[in-house]
Amino acid sequence: MGERGRLAEGLRAYWLIAGMWVRSAMTYRTSFVVTMCGNGLMTAMDFVAILLMYAQIDSLGGWTLPEVAFLYGLSATSFGIADLVLGSMDVLGARIRDGSFDTLLVRPAPVLAQIGADRFAVRRLGRITQGGAVLGWALAAVDIDWTLPKVLLVPVMVVSGAAIFCSLFVAGAAFQILAQDASEVQNAFTYGGTTLLQYPPTVFGKDLVRGVTFMLPLAFVNWVPASYVLGRPYPLDLPEWAAFAPPLVAVACCAAAGLAWRAGLGAYRSTGS
Does Nucleus appear among the keywords (predicted)? Predict the structure, then answer.
């Protein structure tokens, strides 16, 4: 079976498993609505903290509230999509500890699809809805000289950012296989990464900005392309074309995550449970 065939098989398995969990969640629709709204309200607390800061200041690192809301909306929406699709990857460590990961290895379906769709939680739509609402408000409130490239770049940022975060989930899962858990390390880069990107790069030290630009390219989720859209100086004085690099960065990250997953899966040794 070629790469295309394996991809189709993986997507089909993912769809079937996720659909099972969706049907299970929709059995209790009131509970589903309540938990989704609760999820959205919990994630909204991050933006409430930003609003409280701006109640005392006019700008943060030289960025106005609508500009920071633009960063927040991009980061929260992109991460929300990735969290919906692959957020269950952090349970891999628990599966390795209790020996149930071995069961997935013998099933006639790609392991990555099984792990990604495991306990698929539709309630995570609350995070996407909340992030999208902030992004919509920011687009209406921020002062931008709109051009066609800028208009097209906004959805590209969301999709590319989601792909970059998905690659982090997969790479983190591969690390969990090697470390026999360490889900906290994965969360530091995924959940910690989205929190970092909700604030302008000007409030962080240059070493940190370099790290999330060249080593772990989270800056291409929003910092770099958003600087182009807002007409602000690029972090680290990057060239202007860097604003249009997120799709290429996303492809590179996904390829690297795929290699890491294969390496991790190849190095797995059963717990013997």
Answer: no
d(CA 27, CA 65): 41
Cα pseudo-dihedral 250, 205, 237, 160, rounded to 10? 20
pLDDT score at 197: 94
Residue closest to 90 by CA, chosen among 205, 2, 168:
168
End-to-end CA distance of the chain: 32
CB contact at 8 A, 57 and 83: no
Distance CA 169, CA 164 (A): 9
pTM of the model: 0.91
3-class secondary structure per residue, the chain: CCHHHHHHHHHHHHHHHHHHHHHHHCCCHHHHHHHHHHHHHHHHHHHHHHHHHHCCCCCECCECHHHHHHHHHHHHHHHHHHHHHHHHHHHHHHHHHHCCHHHHHCCCCCHHHHHHHCCCCHHHHHHHHHHHHHHHHHHHHCCCCCCHHHHHHHHHHHHHHHHHHHHHHHHHHHHHHHHCCCHHHHHHHHHHHHHHHCCCHHHCCHHHHHHHHHHCCHHHCCHHHHHHHHCCCCHHHCCHHHHHCHHHHHHHHHHHHHHHHHHHHHCCCCCCC
The upper half-sphere exposure of residue 9, i.e. CA atoms within 13 Å in the direction of its Cβ, equals: 12
Taking the chain (273 residues) in consecutive chunks of 10 residues, what is each chunk's mean pLDDT? Answer: 70 86 81 79 86 90 94 95 88 79 83 86 86 94 93 96 95 84 76 92 93 94 95 90 96 95 84 56
Residue in this structure with the two tokens 């938990």, named with its chain if needed: 35
